[in-house]
Amino acid sequence: MKKICSLMLVVAALGLVMVGCEDAASQVDKPTPENPQEPEEPQEPEEPEDPQEPAGVDFEAKYSSGAYYGDEYSPGTDCYFISMSDNGFDENGYVRPNSTYYRLDLYAPKYEGEYREYMPLPEGVYRLDAEDSYAEWTFSADGSEYVVTGESDVVKKLKFEAGELVVTAESTTLTAVVEGVTHVVTFAGEHVIANVLQRPAEDKEWRVEHAYALYYGDKFNIGVADNFYLYLSDKGLDEYGFEIADGTYYAFDLYVDIVDPTAALQLPYGSYLWDDKDTLAAGTISAYYTKYYVINSDATGYADARYTDWASLTVDEKGVVAEVHFGEAVHKVVFEGEVKIFDRSEREPQPEYVMDEALAAAMRIPSSEIGLADNYFALAFIDDAENIELGVVMAGAATDKVLQAGTYDSSNDTLLASACEMNVYEPEGEYAFTSGVVVVTRDGDTYGFDIELTDEDGGIYHFTYEGVVLDMEPEEEPDIVAFEPVAVKAYTEASWDVGNFELQLYIDSDNYHSLDMMDKVAPNNNYLSAGVYRKSDDTITKWSNLVANVTTGEGANVADAEIELSHNVDGTSTLRGFILSEYGKRINIDWTGTIEGFNFDAE
Predict the structure, then answer these.
(1) Average pLDDT over residues 330-346
(2) What is the DSSP letter of 16?
(3) What DSSP letter does each residue of 232-274 carry, written as one string?
């Protein structure tokens, strides 16, 4: 390359000399003896000037703050995120106007010392990592940036093209290239890096003086189990019913067999087992709302708060004994005395029934025999003495092959009250009904029925049954349907937890399946992290639902789901997996496209 450039200069120089000589012959007098003229020396060609290098930037940072994330998002390597700036951040943690920020996503060897509220930045040399490998002594290209703010918003946000950070005990120096310009940033002082990891729990054994519970009746599992939300505390409540400053509170979401509505409220004796599936079954501690927290000294928030990994609880005439696990730490809590109950159920008086009977057998009458569609369920019950014959007709979802658990109500036509009837042999009588409610539970082939029917005179008839239903068709394997959304949108609100998105999978322009997804990889409010989301681990939450019938808009709960989410270099995302509805319909998803609502450029 150097030879070619030299040759071009020689040719150019010759051209100049030739042109110069030719011009001289036409403009200068010939030499005479009186006025001799020495021939001019040929002029050396001028070297072309080098292009001007952009001026560098020297910047003295007055503030440096950030957060320590441990190896939560980079297993085996600790992450420190710092911002060096001239004006720092305001009291709410936001950037200030007319300010400059050098933001660095740093990775260092794993810290093995005791828990600290503020972490020192490890001394050493960090280099820009274009591969974002999160290796020790690097800072990621994707997570690091140069930011400049104007009067009201960000006016410049650029990535580093090259860079090196040197941290010593005395100072920190960043040398980085931004748009071809070298920036040298110096900071003399201590970086203020908050440890955002939760302080490890420690073993604890203590006796508390307060125990109270909120009773909600069966409103969360109608006809199946009652709910008590139990608190054990060292300080209890103040005169206005609020938690007290510096108080410690253990909250347990308990489910029990339905209590006698006519008896005095009391937390039922017995042992309660941990239920991380949140079945809301009697005798369980539902994991979702069970938690531990400590009120701060001015009673404005939490000094500590965490969900439990496992718990057990026993209630007897002496009081309550609980064991709560937080990782390897165990809290054993004892309360002696009677639990105070606050009734939040709005219980109504038990109605006076014209008839209240337990039934002994049940069978399904084939829908084809009585001219009904396959998703209608005509059931015939008899009592043990075969004196009562009761017929009940319920409507399931369009895809139901067997009767599903749920509440069937004449007010929404899921119970066909006019088709329900009863024959009694002794004393002989025929009964018709105008309204009613049937609550159905199901455990495999075993059903539970709580039936309440009303006649035209307002008389109420109550029946119960538990057992198999003869001639109920066995469940078939779920129908597997390939589903490709016409569009996928992500939606979140400010009130939701960080990293919580509703993913809307559109069937058409109006209807969509909804997956409520919780990012546990790297929670942020701009997009869901790549990874596998499951119903089983609550990264796809119970607030998800499907459209079971596009024509009617009828919804269905999600019984199971697993979605693998990946992000592609072209800005698109890929969804692969399945969703299973409570009615047994399974849809398979393999879709790639742009998810509206994700913002990969924002912080």
Answers:
(1) 93
(2) H
(3) EESS-B-TTS-B-TT-EEEEEEEEESPP-TTSPP-PPPEEEEE
